[in-house]
Amino acid sequence: MKTQTFLMMLAGVLLLAACQNKPKQNEQTAEEPAVKIWTAEQAQAWGDEHGWLRGCNFNPSTAINQLETWQAETFDPETIDRELGWAADIGLNCMRVYLHHVAWEVDKQGLKDRMNQYLDIADSHGIKTIFVFFDDCWNATYQAGKQPEPKPGVHNSGWVRDPGDLLHEQPELITTLETYVKDVLTSFKDDQRIVMWDLYNEPGNSGYGNKSMPLLEQVFEWGWEIRPSQPLSVGVWNLSLSDLNKFQVENSDIITYHNYEGPEKHQAAIDSLKAYNRPMVCTEYMARRNNSLFQNIMPILKKENIGAINWGLVAGKSNTKYAWNEPIPDGSEPPLWFHEIFHPDGTPYSQEEVDLIKSLTLEE
């Protein structure tokens, strides 16, 4: 989604880590009440139950960011229903959807009610949901209320981090974040419409590096305290973040990752992550400019039985049809869409792509 230095190969530090003993979190003592991390057998049972997940990172085309998606004033069930219908029509069965702690902070029950409404809509289309809590990408500051208008031709001009710089400026925010995560997890811990919890998107992005480690460690601890019936995971995305990568893969119930590279490098990443012997979901891929395409990546993911969650469903206010670092200031149509499958009226960006997706999904 966010940088051009995405996970390419993890064969070095990650493969070494996989060959080591199980992490301490798996070691039970008399003082520890319950298993924190799933066993490989539990993870495989989850994979067998859910089969091949395929879908998109989804926010409705009428929302510029997570807050506009979830705040009461701009929550848009009609658009959500329409656009998830288009996804179901081409055989997609899973969406990855970002939350934000500010939407909870200003309207705790309201957010959970809207989450439930979203889940009802998705479920009516046969679509499972991956919810994402924290995120180190894009704009560092944010506020409740009316969100900014898109900057013409700028990729994700209004997307916001969570918690972003605020946690470093106000360390006491950690108490709010803990209450938020535990409240949401407790409310939906046995909800079969949710297939997985993605605790933290791309920790270490935006130059944070290991500054993100304390929150990463904390959010896993909070997740283990609630221990929902769904798996907990944080995806690896950048080879250079070795400390974060090691912690993420050793503490996730299932292995998730991002890769926006072509087929050879993507396959190399898959091969290195197989060492963990757990189900895998690619929670971000497909950037046409980078030769990460439905045509050359989705068949690999299906063959390997790896969940295939591309970035973007319908072109809209997020502007992710534009490339990361190639703004078009007049807002004119990019010569090649970076992400997204559909125009706002539901017509495909590429009929060839949609035909390929349907050929892989509708035979399932």
TrEMBL record:
<dbReference type="GO" id="GO:0004553">
    <property type="term" value="F:hydrolase activity, hydrolyzing O-glycosyl compounds"/>
</dbReference>
<feature type="signal peptide">
    <location>
        <begin position="1"/>
        <end position="17"/>
    </location>
</feature>
<keyword id="KW-0378">Hydrolase</keyword>
<protein>
    <recommendedName>
        <fullName>Glycoside hydrolase family 5 domain-containing protein</fullName>
    </recommendedName>
</protein>
<dbReference type="GO" id="GO:0000272">
    <property type="term" value="P:polysaccharide catabolic process"/>
</dbReference>
<dbReference type="InterPro" id="IPR001547">
    <property type="entry name" value="Glyco_hydro_5"/>
</dbReference>
<dbReference type="Pfam" id="PF00150">
    <property type="entry name" value="Cellulase"/>
</dbReference>
<comment type="similarity">
    <text>Belongs to the glycosyl hydrolase 5 (cellulase A) family.</text>
</comment>
<feature type="domain" description="Glycoside hydrolase family 5">
    <location>
        <begin position="88"/>
        <end position="312"/>
    </location>
</feature>
<keyword id="KW-0732">Signal</keyword>
<dbReference type="InterPro" id="IPR017853">
    <property type="entry name" value="GH"/>
</dbReference>
<keyword id="KW-0326">Glycosidase</keyword>
